Amino acid sequence: MSVNDDRKPAYGLGRVLILVYGIFAVAATARSLVQLIRDAEAAPLAYGLSAFAAAVYIMATIALAHNGRRMRRVAWTAVVIEFIGVISVGALSMHRPALFPAATVCSYFGGGYGYVPLVLPLLGMAWLWRSDPQRIDRLA
Q: CA 107 to CA 98: how far, in whole Å?
């Protein structure tokens, strides 16, 4: 069943969510580039994961800003990967801190960033679910 969705890409809190994702995309990208350029050999796993997180934030930001079916799938994929990454890296950084001699966006569940990296994918998933055109159509 095809659902015609004529809404603009995002309203209200959706725009705030996209803004926060954009800020994290820029911050994570800048931090990882500086870390990789200055001293990649000091903590290659941590800095590589920071660069990967930056790419996921960029992908999530772009996908959340669009409302098409394909981009919604990309957004779901990005926020789920982000959530799994935060949980995985957070747990590893607590149980095996030697693997992370330098902080990453996701280490200690995003504690260095006020735990926003832990909460942000949950908010992204909630927004994607709530704004799903097919779900809205079924409820109407």
A: 12
Q: Which of 84, 14, 99 is nearest to 52 (CA)?
A: 84
Residues of the chain with pLDDT below 70 are 1-11
Phi, psi of 6 (to 5 degrees): -100, 10
User: Which residues fall within 8 angstroms of residue 81, CB to CB, at 6 or more apart?
Assistant: 56
Instruction: Return the closest-CA partner of residue 126 out of 61, 80, 59.
Output: 80
DSSP per-residue string spanning the chain = ------S-S--THHHHHHHHHHHHHHHHHHHHHHHHHHHGGGSHHHHHHHHHHHHHHHHHHHHHH--SHHHHHHHHHHHHHHHHHHHHHHHHHHH-GGG-SS--SSGGGGGGGTTHHHHHHHHHHHHHHHT-HHHHHHH-
Q: Which residue type does 12 have?
A: G
On whether the pTM is more than 0.90, the answer is no
Q: Which of 58, 52, 49 is nearest to 104 (CA)?
A: 49
